[in-house]
Amino acid sequence: MRERERSFYWCRACRQPLYATSTATASSARDWEIDHQQPGTCTRQHTLPLTGIAEGPEDLPTATTILRHFGA
């Protein structure tokens, strides 16, 4: 059995950790929600939570301006 690969997301603006949850859809895409793990002040708070249907979090609209990705 292959070990599950882990990814971590951080906010580009405030450099705080984000959570990413998703549920399966009828297609290969998933329904995503991404937001800060802890409340605080952030210059991009108005763009979160980042939600939508995509294959991965990086494929969501505006993801490249919000997400900083670490891991696999």
Task: Pick out its properties.
five-stranded antiparallel beta sheet; single chain; mainly beta; 72 residues
Q: What is the topology, as strand order, of the major beta sheet? A: 4-3-2-1-5
Query: Order of SSEs, N→C?
Result: EEEEHE
Helical amount among residues, as a percent range?
under 10%
User: What composes the largest sheet?
Assistant: 5 strands, antiparallel
Report the principal-axis shape. globular
Secondary-structure content class = mainly beta
Number of helices: 1
Distance between the termini: 17 Å
Low-confidence stretches: none
Mean pLDDT: 87
Number of strands: 5
The amount of beta strand, in percent, is 35-45%
Radius of gyration: 13 Å
Report on this structure.
A hairpin with a 5-residue loop joins strand 1 and strand 2 (17-24). The chain has one helix at 63-66, and strands at residues 7-11, 17-24, 30-36, 50-54, 67-71. It starts with 6 loop residues before the first strand and ends with a strand. It is globular and about 35 Å long. The chain has a five-stranded antiparallel beta sheet with strand order 4-3-2-1-5. The chain contains one helix and five strands. Helix content is 6%, strand content 42%. The chain has 72 residues and is mainly β. The model has no long low-confidence stretch (mean pLDDT 87). The chain has a domain at 30-72.
